[in-house]
Specification:
This protein has 490 residues and is of the alpha/beta class. It is built from 14 helices and 17 strands. Helices cover 47% and strands 23% of the residues. Helix 12 runs antiparallel to helix 14. The structure holds adenosine-5'-diphosphate (ADP).
Length: 490
């Protein structure tokens, strides 16, 4: 609504008065329209937005009270006057009850009219302002309600548990993850919850509630809910009131089972590595101590023997350290691989060439059969060589003297396959199972004296899988073993 030019409708059947009032209002700067009877008055008042309507009480078609009623029902913020020469107490009460702002007794002077209109206009502005504020408040309330429900939905869908506890230890809020993570069957809002919580959380929350703990500090504890199966981390923080007094405690519960599992594997791996490193280091140290001990009088020949053995153990150790570094590199996966087109045929021939001497030492014959032309994949050539060298060197190492190794290169659906089969010592089913575990080595009469780290196959598996490939083993004890590597055709 504008402050200037308020719109006024004059509803009166008396032409002279109607037009006179219109002219008077227009002279005062108002916008004034007229209706010559009640019916027209209603139509105009409802179809346009008038600030003020002046209604004659007595009209031939409809009584002014009826016109007032219709306008007030549909446009409650339009300020209406009843203008009449016959005001009675009853009509005054009735029209005020329906919503008339006031009476203008006829005949009225221009001053009286303008005075009343100005008052009415101020009232109209108040009504509109109230309406605007109410609408804004409703909109804001709607917004808050939808924000609240959005927040609620988000918290409810969190995998982490959220539990809010009030000062008397009752649940003020929780999501369903709390039940799963704390293994609680049932929980209700307003229920005393402390006894249902694991001891460590219970104690921590109680400390806050008894004000034994600084309410500006948060703490977290790790708890085993199902041994070996479910570990959680519970993070407790106090919720302060605006005046800094305590309102309650919020507990955020996370499932940390996977971290725990990784931690366990890591610890096992570290202790395995330490154990594997300790043996050769202790052996070398033992040899050196003997050589250096003046009281032992070790012959030069013996000393040389000890030094050669130490050097072998250290070489093995170096292999192991290099293998470990490869594993850690593969695990971290942070190195951008340089990928180029690798011809598997060339790669296999190079590896055969590289291990030729080893094979010859044991009189082992290597056959390579291939029917494919240009078997090319996109890969890192040194990684492909590493895979093939490991498998082929095992096929030579764990073979019988004068045995055979047969290499086949072929296509199997979407993969190139390289099968390396030996006529060696073979594996029992239980040994085959553990083949790809770090540090696993078969300990038997036949493997005694064959050096190795037990890391080669675990590296091979990691590498093959990094190319979305797979590795399969067939083996029979004392007959031989065949490894088949599948690498996807680009
Ligand atoms: P390493 O050869 O250094 O011991 P690997 O990880 O390459 O380690 O192999 C693990 C173990 O698997 C070997 O120690 C051996 O006992 C067994 N193995 C691997 N390849 C063969 C094979 N071709 N024939 C029989 N046993 C094998």
């Amino acid at each position: 609504m504008e402050n200037i030019n308020p719109k006024i409708l004059v509803v009166d059947d008396e032409k002279g008065l109607r037009l006179g009032t219109q002219r008077l209002l227009e002279n005062e700067g108002y916008f004034a329209d007229t209706a010559e009877n009640g019916t027209e008055g209603i139509v105009k008042a409802l179809s346009e937005d008038f600030d003020i309507v002046i209604i004659d009480l007595r009209m031939p078609d409809i009584e002014g009270i009826e016109v007032l009623k219709k306008i007030k029902e549909n446009k409650p913020n339009t300020v209406c006057f009843i203008a009449t020469a016959y005001a009675s107490y009853e009509t005054a009460v009735e029209s005020t009850r329906i919503g008339a702002y006031g009476y203008i007794p006829k005949p009225f002077t221009p001053e009286e009219l303008i005075y009343q209109v100005e008052k009415a206009f101020t009232h109209r502005k108040l009504l509109l302002e109230t309406e605007r504020l109410t609408r804004e408040k409703e909109e804001r309330l709607l917004e808050i309600a939808s924000e609240k429900s959005r927040l609620n939905t988000i918290i409810k869908s969190l995998k982490s548990g959220v539990l809010v506890i009030n000062l008397t230890g009752e649940t003020a809020y929780f999501n369903s993850s709390v039940l799963q993570l704390l293994n609680i069957n049932e929980l209700n809002l307003g229920e005393y919850v402390l006894d249902k919580l694991p001891n460590k959380i219970n104690e921590m929350v109680k400390k806050y509630l008894k004000l034994e703990e600084d309410i500006h500090k948060s703490y977290s504890v790790q708890i085993e809910i199902y041994p070996g199966e479910l570990y959680i981390d519970a993070y407790c923080s106090p919720v302060p009131n605006p005046d800094n007094s305590l309102a309650g405690v919020v507990v955020i519960i996370r499932n940390i089972t996977e971290y725990k599992r990784i931690e366990l594997v890591k610890n096992q791996f570290v202790s395995m590595v330490a154990h594997e490193l300790k043996t050769p280091v202790a052996a070398v140290l033992g040899f050196l101590k003997i050589i250096l001990d003046p009281n032992l009088n070790v012959s030069e020949e013996k000393k040389t023997d000890f030094l050669i053995r130490s050097s072998h153990r250290l070489e093995d150790l170096l292999h192991m350290v290099n293998d470990l570094l490869d594993i850690s590199r593969l695990e971290l996966k942070n190195k951008e691989k340089e990928l180029i087109e690798v011809n598997l045929l060339d790669c296999i021939n190079n590896v055969i060439e590289f291990l030729h001497n080893e094979a010859e030492k044991r009189n082992i014959n290597i056959n390579f059969e291939n029917n494919i032309k240009d078997p090319v994949i996109t890969a890192n050539p040194s990684e492909i060589s590493r895979i093939l060298t490991n498998i082929l060197s095992n096929a030579i190492k764990y073979n019988k003297e004068s045995g055979n190794v047969t290499i086949n290169l072929g296509i199997n659906s979407n993969y190139y396959f390289i099968k390396i089969a030996d006529t060696g010592i073979g594996l029992r089913p239980a040994e085959k199972e553990k083949l790809f575990q770090e540090f696993y080595r078969v300990k038997s009469e036949k493997t005694r004296g064959i050096s190795g780290t037990g890391l080669g196959l675990s590296i091979v598996k990691r590498l093959v899988e990094s190319y979305a490939g797979k590795i399969e083993v067939e083996s029979e004890i004392d007959i031989g073993t065949a490894f088949t590597i599948f690498l996807p055709i680009n």
